[in-house]
């Protein structure tokens, strides 16, 4: 069995950035495994613009953004395998992948970076009520059909869920000649970014119905009708509030879930984000296995995926040089008031770098202050004029402050 | 006083513009520029994809190099739908110069070997 220092699983925004950073930090014996026929992951189908403002200080489309990383992978001569699907992973870091070119191959890795992205919740996952006819499709699948294969998914479209991909697809389908009747969101606020509400819906007069969801899907072979009903504060359908839409397509943009099947094989602890529990090095509870990007927690901006992945890449280099001590005291990081999750979930006490905490708020809030506390001690605070759940928040803490911590750190968002 | 959402970056600032075109609520100078442009001459960058004639079932993505007037979006889309290219393609290759005389080119945004 081939021995190798580092294997990066996935070559999307996270995988390539992680591999590049690992290589720049002295990891020469590495390999990227990609299941698709080209590098770049989901960015290949994200042909809209708005990427790269943080990374490159310019506005790029998805394919342009990924090409910058492909160029760097090639310049640094980082080896990669395409059409290579990882089918097994063991606790002692034996990876099995299958590809037409190589057959079934086992690799003994010293370190692994998981950059496998996320998958979409589908009709089954949300227990979509009504008929099981054709014409019900997830937003990402519709995006792939349209942008990669050139296939229109329908003519009259209803979109359920106001996640960013759903909004982007509302615009894209409209531009290609479909009639998008409305976007329906079960929550009282949008799950997408404000700019996408403006440039994808308002620009094209597409109505957004909040606190409303699909109460029935009707169609014998192909979808014929969708019924939307209002929901109360407990998200329960309110009777006699039905709106009927004749349509041939229902697009679901109802959430993304980190893809962690391989980590489940090895009983790697998973957090409430549905990604792995990690420390400040983006290292899972299994020493030497790192993770970043959408398989750790679902991001709204790709630039932050690349940023997080670089941290994982550099950390893998530190690990390979035995510069991460997993026996150090662990400080738990807990989400406090108004916060749905915080990353990392724990911190090793003697940190190489300052710590960046990433979190999301549970509901839209104004005039807030982010408090970083350990017991009664305030370690840091940051004022935030406005916070929304669709936007990931980042606050940092000097590593010197860790010495003042007792057992745990609580991050909370409070009124100013 | 007008209120609008900035679309320059994912931050999505809430912008306020008074009758004398003074912009507030913007985090960066580009937000102020956007607000004034949006109220006087709204423009958008268009992205789409076109056929690659010498590859099976293959499309390549394209964009306008400059944003085009909002009321010309569908006219530009009609022009884009008529375009096709041969592979290999390189990012930045011009497919159509000065589309509809709008001072914007249609360029390739994906490398296809």
Structure in words:
The complex is a heterodimer of chains A (416) and B (113). The model of chain A has no long low-confidence stretch (mean pLDDT 95). Chain A contains 7 helices and 27 strands. Helices cover 19% and strands 34% of the residues of chain A. Chain A is α/β, with parallel strands linked by helices and 416 residues long. In chain A, the strands form 7 sheets. In chain A, strands 1, 2, 5, 6, 7, 8 and 19 form a 7-stranded mixed beta sheet that branches. Chain A starts with a strand and ends with a strand. Chain A is globular, with a radius of gyration of 22 Å. Chain B is built from 2 helices and 10 strands. Chain B has helices at 29-40, 73-81; strands at residues 2-5, 14-17, 23-24, 43-44, 47-52, 59-64, 68-69, 84-85, 94-96, 106-108. Chain B has 113 residues and is an alpha+beta fold. In chain B, the strands form 3 sheets. Chain B has a 5-stranded mixed beta sheet with strand order 8-5-6-10-9. The model of chain B has no long low-confidence stretch (mean pLDDT 93). Chains A and B meet through helix 2 and helix 5 of A and strand 5, strand 6 and helix 2 of B.
The Cα radius of gyration of chain A reads 22 Å
- Round the mean pLDDT of chain A to the nearest integer and report it: 95
- Relevant CATH superfamily of the largest domain in chain B: CPE0013-like
What share of residues of chain A is helical?
Answer: 10-25%
Query: Can you summarize the main beta sheet of chain B?
Result: 5 strands, mixed
Topology of chain B as a string of helices (H) and strands (E): EEEHEEEEHEEE
Report the principal-axis shape of chain B: elongated
Count of discrete structural domains of chain B: 2
Distance between the termini of chain B: 51 Å
- Rg from alpha-carbon coordinates of chain B: 17 Å
Inertia-based shape of chain A: globular
